[in-house]
């Protein structure tokens, strides 16, 4: 088991944690209603890929 020999600096800790961030979700505009939605998902208006899936 590894045992730490020296204390790591704040800078090293910060460099290691630079990738721990949230990514913003990709949004596309629905061609039917103009509302933003996640791609490859049905819109709130009930349209997907130019077809009405759910009647509102």
Count of DSSP E strands?
4
Biggest sheet, strands in spatial order?
Answer: 1-2
Number of distinct helices: 1
Pattern of helices and strands:
HEEEE
Mean pLDDT: 92
Low-confidence stretches: none
Structure in words:
This protein is an alpha+beta fold and 56 residues long. It has 1 helix and 4 strands. The strands form 2 sheets. A two-stranded antiparallel sheet has the order 1-2. The protein has a two-stranded antiparallel ribbon with strand order 3-4. A hairpin with a 6-residue loop joins strand 1 and strand 2. It is rod-shaped, with a radius of gyration of 23 Å. The mean pLDDT is 92.
What is the topology?
Layout (H helix, E strand, L loop, with lengths): L9 H7 L11 E2 L6 E2 L9 E2 L2 E2 L4
Antiparallel strand pairs: 1-2, 3-4
Which structural traits does this protein have?
56 residues, two-stranded antiparallel sheet
Quick structural gist:
The protein has one helix at residues 10-16; strands at 28-29, 36-37, 47-48, 51-52. With 56 residues, the chain is α+β, with helices and mostly antiparallel strands.
């Amino acid at each position: 088991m590894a045992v730490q020999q020296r204390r790591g600096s704040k800078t090293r800790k910060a460099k290691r944690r630079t990738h721990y961030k949230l990514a913003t979700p990709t949004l596309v505009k629905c061609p039917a209603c103009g509302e933003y939605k996640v791609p490859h998902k049905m819109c709130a208006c009930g349209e997907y890929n130019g077809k009405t899936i759910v009647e509102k």
